[in-house]
User: Fold these one by one.
Assistant:
Number 1:
Amino acid sequence: MLNIAVFVSGKGSNLRAIHDAIVQGTLDARICLVLGSRPDAPALDWAASEGIPTGVISHRSDDTDSAILGLLEEHGADSIALAGYLKLVPPAVVRAFQHRMLNIHPALLPAFGGSGMYGRHVHEAVLAAGVKVSGATVHVVDEEYDRGPIVMQECVPVLEDDTASTLASRVLEVEHRLFPRALQLFAENRVNIENGKAIIQ
Ligand code: GRF
């Protein structure tokens, strides 16, 4: 069973999808901690109402990495899910959780990722490019935004009359089933990282 710390910055619909998969028995895990990059993230209120331990990480202090690592250790986290986390995770935390930290991105990486590509900006860029498909990507986290071995992807069509908001909802629906499935692959020890690629067994 995975002991997952979920990092959030926003609404937390992916956090709830992970929680639902655990409750339904399709994800063999427990959420041991929810960490927010801002105290007013609605995801933190939801976690607290479910009795899940929460914490807030200030990225302004000098000891952000040791503060995060301390909380992860205190709560026995063995893996991390970045579920709409808008900050770059400090390199010391990435190293400590190498190949045990996953991120969900609302587009088909390596396109439409990187610094500044979050939330609405991603979907606006997809629409501006005129591509016909978008989707969601779950990948292993390394020290740069939205890079790292891709574990799972799923496509959605981009429709002629899409707005950033209609496209975001279609992608989000996919995210909610993709992230728990990717985490379950880790729970089953089925992901090997070889030559920078995730090999699923
Ligand atoms: C999702 O689209 C996720 O891919 C992106 O931020 C959004 C978070 O939504 N990184 P939520 O907070 O899980 O509802």
Number 2:
Amino acid sequence: MINKPKGTVDLTDKEARVWKYVEEVIDSVMEKYNYNYIRTPIFESTELFHRGIGDSTDIVTKETYDFKDRGERNITLRPEGTAGVVRSYIENKMYGTHSLPVKVYYNGTMYRYERPQKGRYRELSQYGVEVLGSNDPMIDAEVISLAYNINKMLGLTDTVVHINSLGDKQSRDNYRKALKDYFRPHLDDLCNDCKERFDKNPLRIIDCKIDNNKEYFKEAPKILDYLSKESKDYFTKVCEYLDLLEVKYEIDQKIVRGLDYYNHTVFELMTTNNNLAIGGGGRYDNLVDDLGGPFTPCVGYAVGLDRLVNEIISRDIDNIRDDIDAFLMYVNEDEKKYAIYLSNLLRMSGFVVETEYTGRSLKSQFKRADHFNSKYLILLNSDDLNDGLVTIKNNKTKEEEKIMIEYLIYYFDEHISDDNLPIDEKCSCYNHGKEDDENE
Ligand code: AMP
């Protein structure tokens, strides 16, 4: 037997259905906010991530899947979505052809060679948003509220956004110096990762999961005390707009984010259920420039779909159907042909229909219909069919009635009141019945 690679998951059954439901909610909310879907390659040139995410980050130093392809090119499976979107923005010269800001969202798999555990995989999925071409705090607030509202729509009403500001370059330089001065006397006591971070990326010492309970961490300098006036004003505006958008947030100076490219606003989405962040993001004004494009201020975020789906399943708050509309039952070949014909007719008219595929007895078909929580059973019986009739049984009340085959669609239109949509409203079989009706 061949097993799946370590750190990957098979998405099946209930989880797969919740996943699709979550994606549908995301797509529909994105449409309301007028964000366009974008799809970039799963692998990119290795250099993109080194230059984009930063050589000193954990992701790039320890976690990428790098390989040489058969043409000796250095290739990396994308560990995150932003660098690819920015590369695409530059390569396709969107700054010249699109009205700014460009507002896009993506949804796809990312690859990180991490130690697998619950909520942490090597193949993970993220949906994310990037807005390229605006430095108005209004867009930071919109992007944060978009993430927040999607969580809310999915039933995660306890989502709280932890927000912080890293300010502009001068603010960060001042803060970095203050941090180094503060932690220098404790250098020997810091974990090995933090010892490395001390020189390369001292901001990341602040969110160290190993050291941050130590007493002297509590007194460490706080970023907001080092912000320039402009940076402070920017952050104040973002918070003001978040209030208008009714986003629940708290200022959390421990949020510095793992990637090098952030400035000003940074944030993470937390739920009370879980101490792992569901998502995070922030402003990255210099990345387009760093990757060879014109200066373009940007803001974005990514949410882990694996964690989002796990959270929804663990609370049992998914909004997906757990029943079907009808199960078509038959025994002989003539009846089976009607099952084939009528299941197609019903499905194309928007109803959720199942039938029998392995020649089971009627008794077993009743069981199968129950297994799918079928609202109605359609009993196809040769004698009735010869008279143009089918028997419909309400599987809840157990009431039965015989109706003419041509009224089947009307019957379901009338009796099934949920929001099933016809696959194609102009579908000929759907209209067929209506025309008949009008002619009568
Ligand atoms: P990041 O790109 O590291 O800021 O992560 C954004 C979100 O992606 C996190 O909050 C998680 O929900 C998700 N995520 C990151 N890494 C993993 C992983 N290894 N496995 C599962 N989800 C992840």
